[in-house]
Design brief:
This is Aminopeptidase. The chain is an alpha+beta fold and 887 residues long. Helices cover 42% and strands 22% of the residues. Helix 14 packs antiparallel against helix 15. It is globular, with a radius of gyration of 28 Å. The N terminus is likely disordered.
Length: 887
């Protein structure tokens, strides 16, 4: 019997799912959301920019070919932080002066005919001139100093999502595709690169004018240029010339990224049935200032630490990061560039697919990396958010421009990619690939919606893919599958039901069409759970318990009946690696929500030493994440000391087995685990590890022995966590002298953990003295706040200096919105969450609400676990430590 409350919840969920299935029409320009009128359409921009990497200002002129679909009283386009110097419309053989009115609130210019008469329908050319400002943060046109004592800087661009308007006036929305023909005037000796090949370079009044070939029709956010001095590493793949561009002296460090590109570019061309669309592909390593990477067509730009590999300092984590990010950005040359999401509401079509394709490329070219297990961490983080109040649907509905970076998040990237993997598992790889080929062919050089995608995949698979997919993309959350099993007459009877999984344990509306995978008696099968409950019968009653979601590709949690869960736990070491990872993840989530005691997770972790084979390092990495969450949740509680003892008991023998020195022929999994174990054991108070790390660091400082790259990150982190004033000074000197982004982040993250509050205050003061790149300066207070004991210190600093820090952060990727929430991101105090929400509203306003809510939800979850486990978990932790203690 169902309760009245459950029936009401089910009815609401069914109505929601039914409505979602109708919510994904195919692309129609006129119906696409946006702020600009659809009456004036650009077809070609001819832009000339006057730039100097040493100057604070730049200027530009543009000629924009337009089609006016009807007579209009004015033209509205985007422009922000630009100062107009003139505007004229050429049409019908006449020049008409336009008056420019800037609207800072909407970041637009209104161009009104000076004669007061309407502008007639037809073709016209808009002539504009303006001045602009070079930015300090990584948005718009920004300066990136070479750093490390080298004089000089380059200019680079980051125009996604809404920053093209900071470089040139534009119809700055994804659906307004146009051709861009760029020219850049610079001082002699400055090199320039852009989306397309350089057509010519000529002397121009003591300067040099660089002209570039026209681009294909594309949105304004994909325009890219860089100006400065570059070193180059060249290659070729799939008939396309490739270049890695770096600051002077660093080209050799691009060798691995070039190798990755030479692998993935032909793979993608074959997979999509579409060749890469431009005649060249450049990739630029930006030496400071920026975060992450940007997929600009033909000129992808990266923060240095996501593109460059230095054999003297980089470890396997860097190698993996480079492969993943390069594979992601090159995938965007199809998903995002060749076919562009219609609007920011559909941005998951760009980002989820690039995430999914990067994982597919990793599996193909690096099978030993165990991506099937390594994706568990990001997926669990996304599921944690998706199970709370701060989540949203993948297709989130209207996206205001001042909150556009709210949708560049783990729901878009990680959940979106996981849902695609789940759909592929359901319909089969061949059907999905054929559907994507049809989608690419039909939407080439145009925009698309989810409706276009499901149309083609549905045709290729012969299934109603839209009905299943929309239940995942158009509602928030995900299901908890509750499973019971019994043996009847020599057959296994499964009883399955679904409800929305929430971390607070309360009922919430939600019903999914769930492609469920079952492994039973050595065979794997699937079924579509599209109602609240179902039952099925499987052949035989094997001794090995049945598994749900054994490959971990389903975006759902499984709650096995108690005896079933106990049977799986008893045979944990015998399960497939992906099933072990999924059982660990689900057990932690069920314990976080109060559906299981946290001791159930500890029992599973106790079995890790008995697990053998190539999946072991990834499972230990998963255990490290679980201990990190518990350490934050139980900070300064009676259970924290037993937690640290249990962590040392579990991790120290593994480090001893691996040793501090990599062995010949050792795989990257072992290297990655070793580094993490050193950092974690130091954090958990392992005196032997702390002492050894200090000795190794001091030896390098004295010039006796360099730190091996394989343990560099772990050792430096351990030293920072326990630094005295002398080692603090040494780390700070290393930060100041760092010649690469990888080195800067290594020393910044380590020094932020310094335990002495007076030293932490000195570090915070450095963020505003102009000596650090803006990306490091604005992130340091957040890293300090997440170090034990410094949350209040960092929080108060950010509140007091918010105006100056906000100016440094700029608008990129919501950086300003994260300044305050980031300082308390590791808190377990619900009162801290409430105060942060109030201060965020006061300092940032509505555009910062979603960011604050995400941080508050994580704090609330930790507070919930703390309240439940601070007193009762200690015995289980003590038992774990005793069980693992050497005989």
């Amino acid at each position: 019997m169902m309760s009245l409350r459950f029936l009401r919840t089910f009815a609401a969920a069914a109505a929601l799912a039914a409505g979602a299935a109708l919510a994904q029409p195919r692309f129609d320009f006129d119906r696409t959301p946006g702020t600009l009128p659809k009456t004036v359409l650009p077809s070609r921009y001819t832009i000339t920019l006057d730039l100097d990497p040493a100057a604070e200002r730049f200027s530009g002129q543009a000629s924009i070919a337009l089609r006016l679909r009807r007579a209009v009283p004015e033209i509205v386009l985007h422009a922000y932080t630009l100062q107009p110097r003139g505007a004229t419309l050429k049409a019908g053989g006449r020049d008409r002066a336009l008056t420019v009115t800037a609207d800072e609130a909407t970041q637009t210019w209104r161009l009104v005919p000076a004669d007061g008469r309407p502008l007639p329908a037809g073709t016209a050319t808009l002539e504009l001139a303006w001045d602009g400002t070079v930015q300090r943060s990584g948005s718009g046109l920004y300066r990136a100093p070479y750093g490390g004592g080298r004089a000089g800087a380059m200019l680079a661009t980051q125009l996604e999502a809404v920053f093209a308007r900071m470089v040139f006036p534009a119809f700055d929305e994804p659906s307004f595709r146009a051709v861009f023909e760029l020219a850049v005037r610079t001082p002699v000796g400055v090199e320039v690169v852009s989306n397309t090949a350089e057509r010519s370079v000529v002397d121009d009044g003591g300067r040099r004018l660089h002209r570039f070939e026209p681009t294909p029709p594309m949105p304004s956010y994909l325009v890219a240029l860089a100006a400065g001095r570059f070193d180059t590493l060249a290659g070729r793949a799939a008939g396309v010339p490739l270049r890695i561009l770096t600051a002077p002296g660093k080209a050799a460090q691009g060798a691995y990224a070039l190798e990755v590109t030479e692998r993935v570019l032909p793979f993608y061309s074959a997979y999509f049935g579409q060749r890469y669309a431009l005649p060249k592909l450049d990739q630029l390593a930006v030496p400071s200032t920026r975060f992450g990477a940007m997929e600009d067509w033909g000129l992808i730009s990266y923060a240095e630490n996501t593109l460059l590999f230095d054999p003297a300092h980089s470890d396997t984590n860097t190698r993996r990061r480079i492969f993943s990010i390069v594979a992601h950005e090159v995938a965007h040359q199809w998903f995002g560039n060749l076919v562009t999401a219609a609007s920011w509401e559909e941005i998951w079509l760009n980002e989820a697919f690039a995430t999914w394709m990067a994982e597919k490329a990793t599996e193909r070219f690096n099978p030993e990396w165990n991506i099937a297990l390594r994706r568990r961490g990001p997926i669990d983080d996304a599921m944690t958010r998706d199970a709370g109040d701060s989540t949203r649907a993948i297709r989130s509905g209207p996206v205001p421009e001042d909150r556009v970076f709210d949708v560049f998040d783990d729901i878009t990237y990680v959940k979106g990619g996981a849902v695609l993997a789940m759909l592929e598992q359901w319909i089969g790889p061949k059907a999905l690939r054929n559907g994507l080929a049809g989608y690419m062919a039909e939407r080439r050089l145009s925009n698309a919606t989810a409706g276009d995608l499901w149309h083609h995949i549905g045709r290729a698979s012969g299934r109603n893919v839209a009905a299943v997919a929309t239940s995942w993309t158009d509602q928030p959350g995900f299901p908890l599958v509750q499973a019971e099993s019994r043996c009847e007459h020599g057959r296994t009877r499964l009883e399955l039901s679904q409800r929305r999984f929430t971390l607070d344990g309360h009922d919430a509306p939600g019903l999914w069409k769930l492609p469920l995978v079952v492994q039973h008696g050595g065979r794997t099968s699937s079924l579509l759970l599209d109602g609240v409950r179902t039952s099925t019968t499987l052949a035989g009653c094997p001794a090995t318990p049945t598994l749900l979601n054994p490959g971990g590709q389903g975006f759902y949690r499984v709650a096995y009946a108690p005896d079933w869960h106990a049977a799986l736990a008893a045979r944990f070491a015998e399960l497939p690696g992906t099933a072990q990872a999924t059982l660990l993840a689900d057990t932690l989530a069920l314990a976080q929500s109060g559906r299981l005691p946290m001791a159930s997770l500890i029992e599973l972790l106790a079995q890790l030493p008995s697990v053998q084979g190539p999946t072991r390092p990834a499972l230990y990495a998963q255990a490290r994440r679980a201990f990190e969450f518990l350490d934050e949740s139980l900070h300064d509680s009676p259970a924290q000391a037993p937690l640290h003892a249990a962590a040392r008991a579990l991790f120290a023998p593994e480090l001893a087995t691996l040793g501090w020195t990599p062995r010949a022929g050792e795989g990257s999994e072992a290297e990655q685990l070793r580094n993490g174990l050193i950092a974690d054991l130091a954090a958990y108070g392992d005196e032997a590890v702390i002492a050894r790390a200090g000795e190794l660091f001091d030896a390098e400082l004295a010039g006796r022995a360099p730190l091996p790259p394989a343990i560099r990150q772990g050792v430096v982190s351990a030293v920072g966590r326990h630094a005295d004033e002398a080692r603090f000074a040494a780390l700070l000197a290393r930060l100041d002298a760092a010649a690469s982004e990888e080195e800067r982040w290594l020393y910044a993250s380590a020094i932020a953990e310094v335990p002495d509050a007076a030293l932490a205050r000195r570090l915070l003061a450095r963020t505003l003295d102009g000596t650090l790149p803006t990306n490091i300066a604005t992130t340091l207070p957040q890293m300090v706040g997440q170090a034990p004991g410094h949350e209040q210190l960092a929080y108060d600093f950010v509140v007091a200096e918010f105006a100056r820090l906000g100016e440094l952060a700029g608008p990129m990727f919501g950086a300003r919105a994260w300044l305050l929430p980031g300082t308390v991101a590791a808190s377990a105090d619900a009162g801290v969450a409430r105060r942060m929400l109030a201060d965020q509203q006061r300092l940032v306003g509505t555009p910062g609400a979603a960011t604050a809510a995400r941080a508050a939800a994580r704090i609330t979850l930790r507070a919930q676990v703390r309240a439940a486990e601070a007193q009762r978990l200690a015995p289980a932790l003590q038992a774990l430590a005793s069980r693992l203690a050497p005989a």
